């Protein structure tokens, strides 16, 4: 598909790169010192404790709360890896699926916050649209290396 300026694959590459920049901004804006000391997870624990869905509270208490520093590193480094992977187009399908899953986790945790819902829904939608459109077909390391043809 060709448009007057870019092909369809190139437009999806623009979306993929924009999504990657969004993930990089999520990583960049964190106060790393506070975040890695467990501040981000402690903040999320307060939200999870008052969550309207018991499964979210239970899951958070069982898997995240016992390991605040590990989870803080996991979240921050996942956001960095997703951003770099999507901007460079390296292992793009894996990054798109992982990003959609992370956005859905964020969405479930922040279900009461409309601003967060909008951001996470938009990011998840771009991830989901990028998969069948094979957004790694243009301007990507995956394309250059012949991966995921």
Task: Give a concise summary.
The chain is mainly α and 149 residues long. Helix content is 73%, strand content 0%.
Biggest beta sheet summary: none
Helical segment count: 8
Given helix and strand content, the structural type is: mainly alpha
Helix content: over 70%
Strand content: under 5%
Radius of gyration: 17 Å
Q: Can you write the helix and strand succession as a string?
A: HHHHHHHH
- Any low-confidence stretches, pLDDT <50, length ≥5? none
By DSSP, the count of extended strands is 0
* End-to-end CA span: 18 Å
Overall 3D form: elongated
Description:
- The chain has 149 residues and is mostly helical.
- Helices cover 73% and strands 0% of the residues.
- The chain contains eight helices and no strands.
- The protein has helices spanning 8-28, 32-36, 39-49, 54-64, 68-88, 92-109, 114-130, 141-145.
- The longest helix is centred in the first third of the chain and has 21 residues, at 8-28.
- It starts with 7 loop residues before the first helix and ends with a helix.
- The model has no long low-confidence stretch (mean pLDDT 93).
């Amino acid at each position: 598909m060709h448009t007057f300026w870019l092909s369809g694959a190139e437009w999806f590459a623009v979306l993929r790169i924009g999504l990657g920049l969004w993930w990089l901004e999520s990583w960049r804006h964190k106060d790393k010192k506070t975040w890695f000391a467990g501040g981000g997870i402690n903040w999320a624990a307060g939200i999870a404790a008052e969550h309207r869905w018991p499964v979210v509270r239970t899951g958070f208490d069982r898997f995240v709360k016992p390991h605040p520093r590990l989870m803080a590193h996991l979240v921050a480094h996942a956001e960095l890896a997703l951003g770099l992977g999507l901007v460079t187009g390296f292992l793009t399908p894996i990054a798109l699926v992982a990003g959609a899953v992370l956005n859905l986790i964020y969405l479930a945790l922040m279900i009461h916050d409309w601003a967060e819902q909008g951001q996470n829904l938009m990011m998840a939608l771009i991830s989901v649209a990028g998969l069948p459109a094979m957004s790694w077909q243009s301007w990507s390391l995956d394309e250059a290396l012949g991966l995921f043809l």
